[in-house]
Specification:
Blueprint (H helix, E strand, L loop, with lengths): L7 E3 L4 H6 L5 E3 L4 E10 L17 E11 L3 E2 L5 H7 L2 H9 L3 E7 L6 H6 L17 H16 L1 E11 L2 E4 L8 E2 L1 E4 L3 E4 L5 E2 L3 H14 L2 E4 L2 E5 L2 E10 L8 E7 L6 H4 L4 H23 L15 H5 L1 H5 L3 E8 L6 H14 L7
Parallel strand pairs: 1-5, 1-17, 6-16, 6-17
Antiparallel strand pairs: 2-3, 3-4, 7-8, 7-12, 7-15, 8-9, 10-11, 13-14, 15-16
GO cellular component, one term: microtubule
Subcellular location: Cytoplasm, Cytoskeleton
Organism: Nothocercus julius
Length: 358
């Protein structure tokens, strides 16, 4: 069995938060722990989609939040992208994928908490404006490791890239306008996307081009909390297989960039943005429910409802099946985001109890 403790990353305060006078309420204690300390209004509030149902409490004037959470690693605002890659266990996950395991990494947290930056960093918009190597995310650094080892080990690499937008699975690499693809299930493969395009690559430039092409087609919008808010969940999967004749099986390395949970009243969403937010929160709620059940001892575990959303279907093997999963909790240090930050950290603490059988 494989049980892992997720790492956590705390982004810096933004310029807008500083101008607004937000206080920093999340701090790393330097020993793989995060401390949250603040006073905030208390009431029913907003239910984080990744949290289990909570009892309704009476309205009172204020509540003091003072909590400490332990993780495998904690990366504060000054941590470099390279340190996150080395300290999170990402390099070991790449080696496991080369060894034939099904590996998954996903970042989760509220909108604007730094999930996409952690996974991808800022993407280059043209060849004339390349991204500085120091800010490359987990994905690009993993691609470099894979390519380095593929040349000596005789590996063939290919990639597929899909998004889940308003509960429709769409291929981000196929030419033409995005169209919905069916989800199927088989006893040998589990849930899979039918007819998705898989493209071989042999260089860092080749996979970077695929990543940029897919990311440009992915749905995103601006709202009050995030100028580039992802409106879909995106899954980029690298397939690793041996070129040797007769070699069976293959490893996979899947990167999942989840859309962030959000309060509609805080983002100012209306119309189409509101519909998107509701679908995002609904799928994240289904994900949180599955993980809450998986965190229970096997003898007390009820049926895990993977079929409740497209997201949980595609993550079924990664969450409680035969895969190995790295989960990165991304949080904001802002006092305005206190409730969402606490929910994310509590959720990550529960997720450490999930055991898979790789």
């Amino acid at each position: 069995s494989d049980t892992s403790v997720p790492p956590a990353r705390v982004r810096p305060l933004t310029c807008a938060e500083t101008r607004r006078g937000d206080r920093r309420v999340v701090r790393s204690l330097g020993d793989s722990t995060v401390h949250v300390s603040a006073t905030a209004p208390r009431g029913r509030g907003h239910r984080h989609p990744l949290s289990p149902p909570a009892p309704v409490r009476p309205q009172v004037s204020a509540a003091r939040h003072d909590a400490t959470f332990g993780f495998s690693a904690v990366f504060d605002a000054g941590t470099s992208q390279e340190a996150v890659f080395e300290g999170s266990g990402m390099r070991e996950l790449v080696e496991l994928a080369i060894g034939g395991f099904a590996c998954t990494v996903f970042a989760f947290g509220q909108t604007g908490s730094g999930k996409t930056y952690t996974l991808m960093g800022p993407l280059a918009q043209s060849e004339a404006q390349p991204v500085a190597p120091c800010v490359l995310g987990l994905m690009q650094r993993s691609f470099a490791c894979l390519l380095e080892q593929s040349r000596s080990a005789g590996l063939a690499l290919s990639a597929s890239y899909v998004e889940i937008y308003n509960e429709q699975v769409r291929d981000l690499l196929s030419p033409g306008p995005p169209c919905a693809l069916p989800l199927r299930w088989s006893k040998s493969r589990g849930f899979y996307v039918e007819n998705q395009l898989s493209v071989e690559f042999e260089s860092l430039e080749g996979i970077a081009e695929l990543l940029l092409e897919g990311s440009r087609r992915r749905r995103s919008s601006a709202h009050a909390l995030n100028k580039h808010s992802s409106r879909s969940h995106a899954l980029l999967t690298v397939h690793v297989r041996s070129r040797a004749r007769g070699a069976g099986g293959q490893g996979t390395l899947c990167f999942v960039d989840l859309a962030g949970s959000e309060r509609v009243k805080d983002t100012g969403s209306a119309g189409e943005l509101c519909v998107e937010a509701n679908n995002i929160n609904r799928s994240l709620l289904a994900l949180g429910h599955c993980i809450s059940l998986l965190a229970k001892p096997r003898g007390k575990r009820a049926h895990v409802p993977y079929r409740n959303s497209k997201l949980t279907r595609l993550l079924a093997r990664a969450l409680g099946g035969s895969g190995i999963t790295l989960m990165v909790a991304c949080v904001s240090p802002s006092s305005r985001c206190l409730s969402e930050t606490l929910s994310t950290l509590r959720y990550a603490s529960r997720a450490r109890s999930v055991t898979t059988r790789p």
